[in-house]
Structure formats: C-alpha cells, structure tokens
Amino acid sequence: MENSQLNKIKISNPLKNRFSKITEDLFWARIPLPFRLDHVNVYAINSNDGLVIIDTGIDNRLTRKCWEEIIENLSPSISLSKIIISHHHPDHIGASKYLSNKLNLEVFAPKVELQRVKKLMSLTDNEYSRLMTLNYKEFGLNKKLIDRVKIQGNNFKKMVKHLPKINSIENPIIIETKHGIWKGRFDTGHSPSQLSLYDEERKIYLCFDFLLPRISPNISVGIDDNENNVLEEYLKYLNQIKKMDENWSVFPGHEYPYKNPSKRAVSLIKHHINRLDTLLKVISKQPINVSEATEVLFGKIKNDHDIFFASCEAKSHLNYLINKEKIMKKLKHKDVETKYIKRN
HEC states along 183-199? Predict the structure, then answer.
C-alpha cells in the first residue's frame, strides 16, 4: 500500500459507527471503551467467503448500540462469513456472544487464547477474589486495596458476561480476498497467543495490541501464573518485527495506523531495557517488593484498575531479571510478601 493511500484514511477520526475503507478488502471501525484508553479498533476483511469481522469490544449497552449502527450501514450486497477474536482480553472478545447471535455467525479464536478465556470465565467470584488477594499480598500492596479486591468478584466476567461457542484456531489462518492474501501468526507477550494478520505483498500488518503506536502494550503476568517470564517472549517478538522494513503499514487494536513497525519495535525494546536497568539500579541499593517496583516504574497510582495492570507488569520485569540471574527472591513472610534482592 502506497503512502498516499495510508494518508487518505482519517486516522484520528474514522467514520462514526460504520466501517471505514482502508483498502479494497480491509475496513475498520472504532468501538468506545469505559477506560482511559477509550476505544478499541475493530476490523473487517472482505474475503472470498464473505466479510470476516475481527474483534468486538466489551459487552455493554454502548458497544451494542455501535454494532447495531455499523451493521445497519453495511452494504446489502456484502455477505458475512465469520467472527475472529485476536486474543482473549475483554475489549476484544467481550461482545462476541452478542454479535454472534445478532449476525448468526460462528466465532473463532486461537486455541491458547480460548483456553485462557474459558479458565478466567470459570472462576467464581470467590475464586477470582482469592487469586487477586494472594497476588496483592505477595506484591506488598496496601491493605485497603487488598480489602477491596476481596469483595470485587470476577472483574473479567463482568466485562465479558457470556461466551458463545468458539471454534479453536490451532494453526495460523490464511484469508484470501480478490486483492490479496492475509496470513496469520501467533505471538506471546501482551497475551499468551495473539493472532495477528499480515499481507506480505502489500505490506499491511494488523498487529492488534502488540505494537501500539504511542503507548507500550501492557506486558503482565497472569493472576494464576505470576512467575511467567512473559517479557522475554515479548522481546523475542519485537526482535522479529525489527526485520520488517519502513514501507509496512501498521493497523493496531488501539489508537491510530502508522508506518515503519521496525522503528516502533526498536523503541519498545529500548523502553523495556531502560525499565529493567532502572529496577536493577534500585535493587542494587536495597531490596524492594512488587509494590515498590511499580512505583519506581509508574509513579504513584490511585486508580485500582491501573494498579492491577501496572503491578502485574512490574512483576513481569522482575521475573525477567530473575531469569537472567540478575536478582533473586527473598521471602519476607511466608506466602505473604516477596522482596527482590540483587544476586551476588
């Protein structure tokens, strides 16, 4: 796709509640979110088998209203094929049951992402709160926050509510259109196995949440597996993206399209290396817990929603340093709070 084609797209303001054309076979729309990151980009590829809708937004009244208007604005000549979910996070999978029922379409998602969402949805309010409480105690977060998560219930389920029957994607898919071939890839980092799509000949990359143009994607441990070295997997992904040249056009799951993914990948690698260096310098002077590491990396955070993501991301950076044998754990109180110290 030529620069002039990308520049024609209203990048900061896609058409309201309808799919805006990017290329002859690729369309996008923007669904509002009730967070600081206030929207999610959803896409559609007009394949040889019909329109493939990718991602849905969370399940709330505003999302449903937006989809109703998007559907009303679809050309009557367009047939519909399926719904694909890039990864399991609520802003991408949340409204999948609603949309599947409304359009009578099958839903597909990567196998690992599907396993993940089923596990999170299966947790009762008590089980979810217990996992959050155990993590926050280990992190050394304050008692008032811990008391709040004890009674919050399954926050994940509140944004998704119900899942449709979802078909498992076990191998990267291929979507053929009259104008090109879209290939899939699975990557680990922001989520365990996100499916992204790219057209090699036209150099178009639907990166969804792994390569955002302005902010760093959240790279967090899971509440049921907080020892996972997820940052190392994400850095491997970024080093692969460095091979893509400046002529590639990138379409993310949030914010706006841009060009030159390699430059963005290099910037994100530097960003995380700087964070790791900052943590190592602090830990070389004194032991710290996850709560203190969170403040080192993100400053003081008052919002419970942001504390969750920031603390889980701080933990992923500490895990990386442990795996590189730069630091080690020192248990302050059994099963309560973990401190991190520099390895001799």
Answer: EEEEECCCCCCEEEEEE
pLDDT digit string, tens, across residues 19-75: 999 999 999 999 999 888 889 999 999 999 999 999 999 999 999 999 999 999 998
Q: Quote the CA–CA distance of 44 and 3 in Å, as a whole number.
A: 21
Residues linked to residue 43 through DSSP beta bridges, in sequence order: 28, 54
Q: Residues 46, 76: contact at Cβ < 8 Å?
A: no
Q: What's the pTM value of the predicted model, to 2 decimals?
A: 0.92
Joined tokens for residue 268: 């994100």
CA angle 176, 5, 248 (to 5 degrees): 65
Distance between start and end Cα atoms, the chain: 53
* Residue 337 region by backbone torsions, left for phi larger than 0, else alpha for psi between -120 and 50, else beta: beta
Amino acid at 115: Q
List residues bridging with 225 in a β-sheet: 222
In sequence order, which ranges of the chain are alpha helices (DSSP H)?
3-8, 61-72, 90-93, 96-103, 111-122, 125-139, 143-150, 155-160, 230-241, 261-283, 290-298, 304-323
Phi, psi of 42 (to 5 degrees): -115, 150
For the four alpha carbons of 105, 110, 111 and 114, in that order, the dihedral sign comes to negative
**Residue 139 · residue 290 · CB < 8 Å:** yes
Q: Is the pLDDT of residue 7 over 80?
A: no
Do the Cβ atoms of 36 and 306 come closer than 8 Å?
yes
191, 113 contact by CB (below 8 A): yes
Which of 44, 41, 40 lies closest to 53 in space, CA to CA?
44
